[in-house]
Amino acid sequence: MDFQYFIELFFGGLTRGSIYALIALGYTLVYGIIGLINFAHGEIYMIGAFTALLVAGLLGYLGFPAGGILIVAALAAIVWTSAYGYTMEKIAYKPLRNAPRLSPLISAIGMSTFLQNYVLLAQTPDFVPFPMLLPDIDWLLEKFNYVLGPSDFFILVVSFITMICLMLWIRYTRMGKAMRATAQNRTMAMLLGIDANHIISVTFIVGSALAALGGVLIASHMGQINFGIGFLAGMKAFTAAVLGGIGSVPGAVLGGLTLGLAESFTTGYVAGNYEDVLAFCLLILILIFRPDGILGKHQVQKV
Amino acid sequence: MLELKNVNTYYGVIQALRDVSLHVDEGEIVTLIGANGAGKSTTLMTICGIQHPRSGSILFKGKPIHELQPNEIVKLGISQVPEGRLIFPELTVAENLDLGAFLRRDKDGIARDMEYVFSLFPILKQRIGQDGGTLSGGEQQMLAVGRAIMARPKLLLLDEPSLGLAPIIIQQIFQIIQKVNKDGTTVFLVEQNANQALRIAHRGYVMENGCITMEDSSANLLASEKVRTAYLGMEA
């Protein structure tokens, strides 16, 4: 067991985990506000990756430089995917706001299937290559003894900055406070003049933007995407959100990183094909033994 | 200032308010007393736009408000301290108060009102950085009243502010309500604690099964035999 190998696995796990965390934040924010597990969230991430691919293709054709393409494509993906998230809430969840809890959940599964098949028909069922857009930073990685690749480095830096910004936004801005208030008691938030519909829309937009960013980053990392990538990524991120404590923002980050590290070490030290088995065994075990997750609050049933 | 005309509110098929008509004039403290489940809280939620009446009208300063959304009603100057206080447990005292002023943009005015709230409830200033959920029941009620004042309402609605509090705290809260009223805020007070409420109110209404059954000055209601036996627990 040499140290270099351990460090490589560690950074690989962090990279993977920070993507899970970005997606898990969308699950946890939406759950915090309206108590819904948005099963179509993984598809939002997939659409983010596809949007970036299409925009990058167009810009590449027009002869833009690689760095510029990356930024424009990522921004386009974030904006376009946020519009998807916003619309999805208005179509599939808002009409069911006062319905029994099972109804929006089924609506979410329907939305997920719809979006997958829509992309399958509108694009292609095959894997398509995603262009290598990340700039060359070999001189920097050399200093780190190549324990991580250029895409790992970018994913770590971008996702950590994003997550810190998100936490500061939730903690200190007027909108962030209104969001926390709505999550804690929607009726009281409304009595203070907070427009709950507006907050719910903002939550979906923010969650989708984070997923889109995750989609762009992972697509640059993996080098290929297809319509089905959202399913597994969504399930893993959901596991991460539950692991950290669904509804908790730091929990989603912690859960994502924990899951990423656990998968990476399993792949490295146990067996390469068992990472998904591990993730979902973990999900089952948490649900049985600690359903509130690492940072989640224990829900007291009021009688 | 506030006028309800033949208001009928339903929860699904169940009728909670039946032809409720009442009015609150500027500068008054008016109380609505009645037993648990009579429809008192529904009355307040209907005024605030959380529930919408199926028929009837609600006028605030002569303009109909019964079709407006809650945030629009808050903007017009109506704030509610709801039953059970509904403090945000994971927000600090300062954040709870800030959210009371959510629709206001006048930074100086907000700062001044924050000082006003601290002058009414000095204990809140000591607790300013603590999470709302860590406060005692009485402190939470003070925070709830303070949060409503932060909106600088013209009409303050209070739902059972005495619920679950020690008599000495109740005294203190009711004194503050009187002071806030003297400082220029009209108060509509819903209470099961009829004795206390009628002592500070100018006028009162009695509600039973969703209907207003009595309406009079507080002094007359306190003296009325029916109120004495049904709500004050006294022998006739």
Can you offer a commentary on this structure?
By secondary structure, chain A is mostly helical. Chain A has helices spanning 3-34, 41-61, 66-93, 102-122, 138-143, 150-172, 174-184, 186-191, 196-222, 229-244, 249-269, 275-289; strands at 128-129, 224-225. Chain A has one domain (8-289): Orthogonal Bundle (ABC transporter involved in vitamin B12 uptake, BtuC), CATH 1.10.3470. A two-stranded antiparallel ribbon of chain A has the order 1-2. In chain A, helix 2 (41-61) crosses helix 9. The model of chain A has no long low-confidence stretch (mean pLDDT 90). Chain B is of the alpha/beta class and 236 residues long. Chain B has helices at 40-47, 70-76, 93-100, 107-120, 122-126, 137-149, 167-182, 194-200, 218-223, 225-230, and strands spanning 2-11, 14-24, 29-34, 55-60, 63-64, 78-81, 155-159, 186-191, 203-208, 211-217. In chain B, the strands form 2 sheets. In chain B, strands 6-7-8-3-9-10 form a 6-stranded mixed sheet, sandwiched between helices. Chain B has a 4-stranded antiparallel sheet with strand order 2-1-4-5, with helices on one face. The mean pLDDT of chain B is 93.
Secondary structure elements and pairings:
The complex is a heterodimer of chains A (303) and B (236).
Chain A: H1 3-34, H2 41-61, H3 66-93, H4 102-122, E1 128-129, H5 138-143, H6 150-172, H7 174-184, H8 186-191, H9 196-222, E2 224-225, H10 229-244, H11 249-269, H12 275-289
Antiparallel strand pairs in A: 1-2
Helix pairs in contact in A: 1-6, 1-9, 1-10, 1-11, 2-3, 2-4, 2-9, 2-10, 3-9, 6-7, 6-9, 7-9, 10-11, 10-12, 11-12
Chain B: E1 2-11, E2 14-24, E3 29-34, H1 40-47, E4 55-60, E5 63-64, H2 70-76, E6 78-81, H3 93-100, H4 107-120, H5 122-126, H6 137-149, E7 155-159, H7 167-182, E8 186-191, H8 194-200, E9 203-208, E10 211-217, H9 218-223, H10 225-230
Parallel strand pairs in B: 3-8, 3-9, 6-7, 7-8
Antiparallel strand pairs in B: 1-2, 1-4, 4-5, 9-10
Helix pairs in contact in B: 3-6
